[in-house]
Amino acid sequence: xxxxxxxxxxxxxxxxxxxxxxxxxxxxxxxxxxxxxxxxxxxxxxxxxxxxxxxxxxxxxxxxxxxxxxxxxxxxxxxxxxxxxxxxxxxxxxxxxxxxxxxxxxxxxxxxxxx
Length: 115
Ligand code: AMP
What we know:
Blueprint: H1 5-10, E1 18-21, E2 25-29, E3 37-43, H2 58-74, E4 81-84, E5 100-104, E6 108-109, E7 112-113
Bound molecules: adenosine monophosphate.
Residues 5, 14, 16, 28, 30-32, 40, 86, 92-95 line the site of adenosine monophosphate (AMP).
């Protein structure tokens, strides 16, 4: 398995604020939050980008979506949150280990996070 920033976090080599973990994924607070609540949900398995996911990853992808809702609810933003997946450098992806951004904690104004 290739090493990424997130595998190092999972191995405890880089400190992070872990909010949730199970056998398939881990949720940590984003170090540079773009919303009052900004959490990254990361599969333990390294899939570099969403488009690299294979048919056999379907159950994992479903688990991530369902867990995102669970984590959002646990953080008190279950009614109003946004999920973002950046796929590729051009879309702003900087860590090539698939992750979901869970963002909330304030209202959305015409689909954008209200400032
Ligand atoms: P992306 O740009 O979609 O690849 O998202 C990568 C995210 O990882 C960014 O939102 C960064 O702020 C976040 N990040 C980078 N380093 C760390 C870290 N050490 N702990 C937590 N989040 C991090």
